[in-house]
Amino acid sequence: MTASSLLAASKIQRRARSRLVSGTMSLLIAGAFLLAAVPLFLVVGYTLSRGVTHFSWIFFSHSLAGVPPSQPGGGIAAATIGTIEQVGIATLVSVPLGLAAAIYLAEYGVGTRFAGAVSFLVDVMTGVPSIVAGLFVYAFFVISLHRGFSGLAAALALSILMLPVVIRSSQDMIAAVPTSLREAGYALGLRRWRVIAFIVLPTARSGLVTGVMLAVARVCGETAPLLVTAFDNAYINTNPLHGQQSALPLVIFNQAQQAYQPAVDRAWAAAATLILAIVTLYITARLLARRRLGGKSG
């Protein structure tokens, strides 16, 4: 065999080996994904199968006021209002603060000691148990300031849990924007804040929305902070600034520990409602982000 034929055969062998390795790794990655996704699908599927069957107009439009655990009836109207208000206030508090901190860490404070200290505190906050955030708000806001149990206290506890998730995810998305886009803006004479506001943030919009949705999903199911801040309320309370307030996690927690089947059924239905709400919110936000991004590019 000539040298050229040997070289060609060697190239063919290397290509075949590369394809074999690539195919094997692809199969392993797909298998790992399926292995990780199976428990998720089982949990979601089982919860929906147990909960959706108990959906009714009464369940969504009535509260649990006057409904004993042993009797059917009642619903999650009070809990739904409380969850919407508490998570909404927490989002309004944590998203602007988290985005501002992420912009500083990714754009202004790179390599500085203060940015390193802030990044360290964010990592610490990420690992703080949710009950600690609830106890902090309980001791400072509910007791020390004499504000009492309220939806606002619950929202402050949830915002503490949301803040590090928003900061870290937003920082990663902003840092992932290509440097060439920033340099193009500077070449056009734009100031730094305009480059960030009109080039960096729109480019990272999809990732930023995903990070916010992850933070919302992170706190929507939290129960421990709400036990010491909102404290639950069987009656509808639309004022988050005053008085005890219910929430979907509290309904799930309180009803699931009852010894009566009607209460357990309400817990399954409330859990299914929470899952469907989070999935719907996430899909809607992603579609809106893509539509806006597509509209601008067009």
General description of the model:
There is one protein chain. The chain has 298 residues and is mainly α. The chain has a domain at 77-247: MetI-like fold. Helix content is 76%, strand content 0%. The chain has 12 helices and no strands. α4 crosses α6 (151-175). It is globular, with a radius of gyration of 25 Å. The model has no long low-confidence stretch (mean pLDDT 89).
CATH architecture of the domain at 77-247: Orthogonal Bundle
Total of helices: 12
Helical residue percent band:
over 70%
β-strand amount: under 5%
Instruction: Give the averaged pLDDT, no decimals.
Output: 89
Structural class given helices, strands, pairing? Answer: mainly alpha
CATH superfamily of the domain at 77-247: MetI-like
Number of strands: 0
Write the CATH fold name of the domain at 77-247. Answer: MetI-like fold
- Termini separation (Å)? 57 Å
The H-and-E topology, N to C, reads as: HHHHHHHHHHHH
**Which CATH top level class of the domain at 77-247 fits?**
Mainly Alpha
Low-pLDDT stretches? none
- Compute the CA-based radius of gyration: 25 Å
